[in-house]
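Tokens as discussed.
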């Protein structure tokens, strides 16, 4: 007999009730391979190991039969609510069920006893072992078997249903500080587990049909990319959805509050963090692709907590705590050594908020938490241009990381679009100008001297990294990043792949740690490439590891680039990143902002912030940067200072500290062996104390010139000769300046081009041969 066994964990993105039901199927079909009938009995069991990570824990069980079904139920004798041991929940019940069919049999007892009886006799005794005990005491099993009789093939599949049920599923701390129990969404439709079991068993045929239809749709969408891509998305989809709990609250009247739906994500295989923001960011493409209505409920627990009085940090939190399924909030997101993930997580939240609204058309969260989002953007304005004291999603804390900086800049532009959606046009224009100015400065600092690739950190000429955060530019269609950057970076990846920098399972995250690969970031990076061959190679690296059986752990996201060994991240929902290419195919919809409650006379007051002051100062700060860059030019035209046009009224004073690009010691790439410091490692511009004092005095005495539109701005680059290499280069600041005039910007660009030409001449004179990158 040939046996066909199907393991089915349905994905039901359009039906939250079904998606929240924690049951899977095992189905079996048999057919004779010689044309002759054969006697067939089939058997399956589960063990009490499902119930605890502590094998000495005491368990109890029961068997229930009815005209419709038979099912076993087992649970701990002393369950511990919201507790895990070795990654296993201590408060659930496991169910093993089958519809009532001819020839059905069951038995509970010791594993060797029950399995031995079936092996010897082809039958079970329909008896229950009532000697409840520890899991490792005889390892009790719960078996269901069927005698199919003398057959040439099964008329219908034999179907077992397996479920692990927790109810309630989340303990959530509300903005008032109260602990709220949250329940699985299926409870809004089914009042008991027996009802759920009946629905699950009767729905198998339809569930299989829906699953087949969904798989066919995804396969059709992925087949145009590559076969390897089709294979990996089929693995990652269920893993991503398995990492979430769709929950609902219970009102004081005992009724389900279906308007209060919140989704919680566990950082599976790594730790117990609740709603880990960088993992949500990685997984976001799958939710955008299948059903963007998942996104807002995933963001809302974080936003609700961060808008409360219990959260006091100026940037977004990293998670809702590290004790899932308890989501109590996290007000201590500062890392060891004082570093923070402020830029990383604030930008993640802004990007996800806008992406969700564009895909679904639901702008309710944008309006409700506008002030909070604005405050995070102000933080990005101050900290993302030249990140210092910041930690990336990969745990890197190097100053001036280009990949982190670009995420922050995209986050600022995302806020511009959010402001536009909620009709805060002044904020929108200011944030857009800031993002544009920062982007120009980023290009002057992030690119290598030959303009062919993006460095890992400003000034580290031998470094490189996967610029996976460029994906957000494509996802949001912010168009901040030039097409030539995508093309040049693609060519650079091709050089790395063919030059020996890639390992067995792909390109490492960056040159600072050439041993670690992240499948989610490989997929984001692959999606940003402009060459199908490079894209498909990066995707194939992910498939190579997913199909490799030499290491333990279910489809991890982080592993060794050569051996494939993992220490964490197995079965992680971040594999939702596999859908990054498909998420770009989702059309944007018009964002609809719900009307304000009638009791509120105005929303302007509640959303008021210092956006105008901060961003206005930042945009104006580019004029100050241009003055620094062209200091000689400014001294030459000093007499014109008195002729500046004066605005009506007194100039506005902004009391905002500027941030700077502060060159710091960097770790050179392994291929750099010369002891000489490259020109690119020198700060492009420096400011002596005397110059700083002079400029400060001029700011105190002059009146503000009239700014010009941001659209006239061009690339802000470093040009003047440094007076002292110890002084920091000013990045576009948030204080006391204006947008540079076209005249200054034109001169600035010419000087920058001259500086690069002089660098090239100097290198040609000093070195015996033109410099080249040597791939290790």
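Sequence:
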């Amino acid at each position: 007999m040939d046996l066909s066994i199907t393991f089915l964990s349905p994905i039901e993105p359009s039906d939250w009730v079904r998606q929240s039901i924690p049951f899977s199927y095992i189905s079996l079909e048999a057919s004779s391979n010689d044309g002759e009938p054969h006697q067939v009995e089939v058997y399956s069991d589960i063990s009490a190991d499902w119930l605890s990570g502590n094998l000495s824990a005491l368990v109890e069980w029961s068997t229930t039969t009815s005209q419709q079904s038979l099912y076993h139920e087992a649970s701990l004798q002393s369950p511990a609510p919201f507790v895990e041991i070795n990654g296993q929940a201590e408060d659930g019940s496991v169910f093993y069920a089958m519809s009532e069919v001819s020839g059905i049999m069951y038995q509970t007892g010791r594993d060797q006893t029950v399995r031995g009886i079936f092996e010897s006799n082809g039958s079970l005794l329909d008896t229950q072992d009532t000697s409840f005990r520890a899991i490792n005491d005889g390892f009790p099993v719960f078996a269901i078997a069927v005698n199919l009789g003398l057959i040439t093939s099964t008329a219908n599949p034999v179907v077992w249903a397996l479920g692990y049920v927790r109810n309630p599923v989340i303990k959530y701390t509300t903005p008032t500080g109260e602990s709220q129990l949250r329940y699985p969404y299926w409870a809004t439709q089914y009042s008991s587990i027996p009802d759920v079991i009946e629905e699950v068993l009767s729905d198998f045929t339809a569930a299989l049909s829906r699953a087949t239809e969904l798989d066919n749709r995804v396969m059709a969408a992925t087949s145009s990319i590559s076969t390897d891509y089709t294979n990996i998305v089929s693995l990652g989809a269920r893993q991503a959805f398995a990492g979430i709990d769709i929950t609902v609250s219970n009102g004081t009247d005992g009724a389900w509050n279906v308007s209060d739906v919140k989704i919680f994500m566990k950082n599976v295989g790594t730790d117990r963090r609740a709603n880990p923001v960088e993992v949500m960011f990685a997984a976001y493409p799958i939710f955008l692709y299948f059903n963007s209505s998942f996104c807002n409920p995933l963001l809302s627990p974080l936003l609700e907590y961060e808008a409360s009085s219990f959260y006091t940090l100026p940037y977004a939190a990293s998670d809702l705590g590290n004790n899932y399924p308890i989501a109590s909030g996290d007000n201590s997101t500062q890392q060891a050594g004082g570093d923070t993930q402020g830029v990383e997580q604030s930008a993640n939240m802004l990007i996800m908020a806008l992406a969700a609204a564009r895909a679904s058309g639901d702008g309710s969260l944008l309006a409700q938490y506008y002030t909070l989002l604005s405050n995070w953007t102000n933080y990005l304005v101050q900290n993302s241009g030249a990140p210092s004291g910041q930690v990336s999603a990969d745990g890197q804390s190097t100053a001036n990381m280009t990949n982190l900086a670009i995420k922050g800049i995209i986050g600022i532009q995302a806020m511009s679009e959010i402001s536009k959606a909620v009709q805060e046009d002044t904020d929108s224009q200011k944030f857009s100008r800031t993002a544009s100015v920062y982007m120009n400065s980023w290009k002057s600092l992030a690119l290598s001297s030959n303009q062919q690739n993006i460095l890992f950190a400003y000034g580290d000429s031998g470094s490189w990294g996967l610029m996976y955060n460029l994906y957000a530019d494509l996802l949001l269609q912010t168009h901040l990043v030039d097409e030539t950057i995508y093309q040049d970076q693609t060519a650079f990846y091709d050089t790395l792949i063919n030059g020996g920098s890639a390992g067995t399972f792909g390109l490492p995250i960056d040159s600072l740690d050439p041993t670690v690969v992240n499948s989610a970031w490989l997929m984001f990076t692959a999606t940003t490439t402009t060459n199908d061959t490079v894209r498909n190679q990066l995707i194939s690296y992910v498939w190579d590891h997913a199909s490799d059986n030499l290491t333990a752990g279910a489809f991890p996201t982080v592993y060794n680039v050569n051996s494939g060994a993992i220490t964490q991240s197995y079965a992680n929902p971040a594999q939702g990143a596999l859908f990054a290419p498909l998420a770009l195919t989702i059309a944007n919809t018009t964002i609809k902002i719900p009307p304000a409650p009638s009791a509120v006379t105005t929303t302007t007051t509640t959303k008021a912030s210092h956006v105008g002051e901060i961003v206005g100062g930042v945009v104006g700060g580019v004029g100050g940067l241009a003055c620094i860059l062209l200091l000689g030019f400014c001294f030459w035209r000093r007499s014109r200072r008195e002729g500046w046009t004066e605005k009506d009224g007194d100039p506005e004073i902004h009391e905002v500290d500027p941030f700077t690009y502060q060159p710091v010691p960097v770790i050179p790439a392994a291929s750099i062996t010369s002891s000489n410091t490259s020109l690119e490692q020198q700060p492009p511009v420096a400011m002596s104390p005397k110059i700083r004092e002079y400029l400060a005095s001029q700011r105190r005495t002059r009146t503000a010139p009239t700014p010009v539109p941001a659209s006239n701005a061009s690339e802000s680059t470093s040009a003047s000769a440094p007076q002292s290499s110890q002084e920091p280069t000013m990045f576009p600041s948030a204080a006391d300046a204006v947008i540079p005039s076209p005249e200054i910007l034109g001169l600035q660009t010419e000087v920058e081009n001259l500086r690069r030409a002089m660098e090239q001449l100097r290198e040609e004179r000093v070195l015996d041969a033109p410099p080249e990158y040597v791939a290790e």
